[in-house]
Amino acid sequence: MQQLKKIMEEQRRFFKDGNTLSIKWRITALKELKNSIKSHEQEVIRALYMDLGKSEQESYMCEIGMVYSEIDYMIRHIRSLAREKRVKTPLTQAPGKSFVKMSPKGTVLIMSPWNYPFMLSMEPLVDAIAAGNTAVIKPSAYAPFTSKIIETVVQEALDSSLAKVVTGKREENQRLLEEKFDHIFFTGSQSVGKEVLKKAAENLTPVTLELGGKSPCIVDCSANIHKAARRIVFGKFLNCGQTCVAPDYILCDKSIIENFVRELIKEIKRQFGKNPLENPNYGHIINQKHLNRLLSMLEKEKAFYGGNYVRAKLKIEPTVIYPAAWESDCMKDEIFGPILPVIGFDNLDEVIEKIGERPKPLALYIFSKNRKNIEKLKSRIIFGGGCINDTVIHLATPYMGFGGVGESGMGAYHGKMGFETFSHKKSIVCKSSLFDFPMRYQPYTGFDLKLIRRFF
Questions:
Q1: 316, 309 in Cβ contact below 8 A?
Q2: Which of 210, 263, 267, 420 is catalytic?
Q3: 95: cis peptide before it, omega within 30°?
Q4: What is the pLDDT of residues 393-452, one digit of tens each?
Q5: pLDDT digits (tens, 9 = 90+) for 256-283
Q6: Residue 100 banded pLDDT, cuts 50, 70, 90
Q7: Can 221 be counted among the known catalytic residues?
Q8: 323 phi, psi to nearest 5 deg
Q9: Could you give phi then psi for residue 392, rounded to 5 degrees?
């Protein structure tokens, strides 16, 4: 507890002294962070394999490469992002000029999950540093090897007065949430997100919540079912299904559903082989607790394809539940694993109504060639973000924000939106001393209300 208070005092003092205000200094810090990651890249890859069984290719594509991309974006755009923006000044405030100044919030807390432990710790850190904040990073205890290398990378690149990694379990999480931060950035489950929000409310601390939910994938009768199956299998079984934006379930037009399911199974075999449990590039479930949760779900459902597992290796093969129903056990909560229910539908209005009855999803995926159907679905369903004719890739860009809505989260980050998340926009009017409009001062007896109305 004393160590945590010391960290907080050190970071607050460093921030108050104005050390993070220099854009040149921020760029240097980001470059140092990138160099440190590069020097430990193989150790990061090894840690991700130890924690989640991720292959080298997947580790780079879905974690390390995305962090590099975010750092490069910030280094290229930080000057324009931080620049004061002139805005119009109304006649009532003339003569003068108005502008918005981007200012760092202060000392921020970043709490990251275990499913993409490196990327979801480092990307918010990059945005926080770029915006001029100091940061405390709390990685997940469920990914101990990655947490350790994150600590090494940050400690080597950045002074503790700028960024500090705090490891530990639930007790450390509680202690951190008792401190008064200037912003809390949390990625994880909805249940823990609620607790974070409660704690933050006690100090009126602004919060970004990146949560999850049951993200639907809709396939209509006009879709290219071969491409749809291929891209859905990629998005669903990436990281063994442990992805917050993974397609949680499929809604498929009944007129094509039999052909689509056949294509789905073909793609699973194509991408993971006939025995995925022996595929070295197919990851594993994070721990026994989550494996048991998924196996309990499988016991209540009848697998149309897959369903085999090896408990000792924490592995469950890609599994298709078909036909599934809205009332199925696997439709009650987010699956967060390699189990994919497929439900048929007769018309899109039914789909819109059913999705609308449930908590707002983090992502929505639409597979269709019909423009009217696409417009109808993307307009009438409330969701965080998504793709048309693909899955998950909408979060892999620094040029759009990523975030949820309603139960799936609040706030967004990546690129410009990440910079803005960790910044406060100061609205400022710089008024000339040349003259005043006398009508604004007491006494008002000399001015007719009609004149004031016309002026405004």
A1: yes
A2: 210
A3: yes
A4: 999 999 999 999 999 999 999 999 999 999 999 999 999 888 887 778 888 777 778 877
A5: 999 999 999 999 999 999 999 999 999 9
A6: very high
A7: no
A8: -80, 135
A9: 60, -20
How confident is residue 1, by pLDDT bands cut at 50, 70 and 90?
Answer: low
Q: In the structure, what pLDDT confidence band is assigned to residue 3 with cuts at 50, 70 and 90?
A: confident
Report d(CA 277, CA 35) in Å as an integer. Answer: 36
Residue type, 59: S
Other beta carbons less than 10 A from residue 280's beta carbon: 8
Please calculate the CA angle 154-157-158 and round it to the nearest 5 degrees. Answer: 75
Q: Which residues lie across from 208 on neighbouring strands?
A: 185
Distance CA 145, CA 353 (A): 44
Known active-site residue 156 = no
> Which amino acid, residue 339?
I
Residue of 248, 184, 230 lying closest to 386 (CA atoms):
248
Residue 2 has pLDDT above 80, yes or no: no
**Active site residue: 62, 217, 240, 244, which one?**
244
Q: Roughly what angle, to the nearest 10 degrees, separates helices 65-82 and 119-130?
A: 20
> CA–CA separation, 213 vs 195, rounded Å?
17
As a whole number of angstroms, the distance between CA 388 and CA 411 comes to 22
SS (H, E, C) the chain: CHHHHHHHHHHHHHHHCCCCCCHHHHHHHHHHHHHHHHHCHHHHHHHHHHHHCCCHHHHHHHHHHHHHHHHHHHHHHHHHHHCCEEECCCHHHCCEEEEEEEEECCEEEEECCCCCCCHHHHHHHHHHHHCCCEEEEECCCCCHHHHHHHHHHHHHHCCCCCEEECCCCHHHHHHHHHCCCCEEEEECCHHHHHHHHHHHHHCCCCEEEECCCCCEEEECCCCCHHHHHHHHHHHHHHHHHCCCCCCCEEEEECCCHHHHHHHHHHHHHHHHCCCHHHCCCCCCCCCHHHHHHHHHHHHHCCEEECCCEEHHHCEECCEEECCCCCCCHHHCCCCCCCEEEEEEECCHHHHHHHHHCCCCCCEEEEECCCHHHHHHHHHHCCCCEEEECCCCHHHCCCCCCEECCHHHEECEECHHHHHHHCEEEEEEEEECCCCCCHHHCCCHHHCCHHHHHHHC
Rounded CA separation 225/223 (Å): 6
Between CA 431 and CA 319 the distance in angstroms is 66
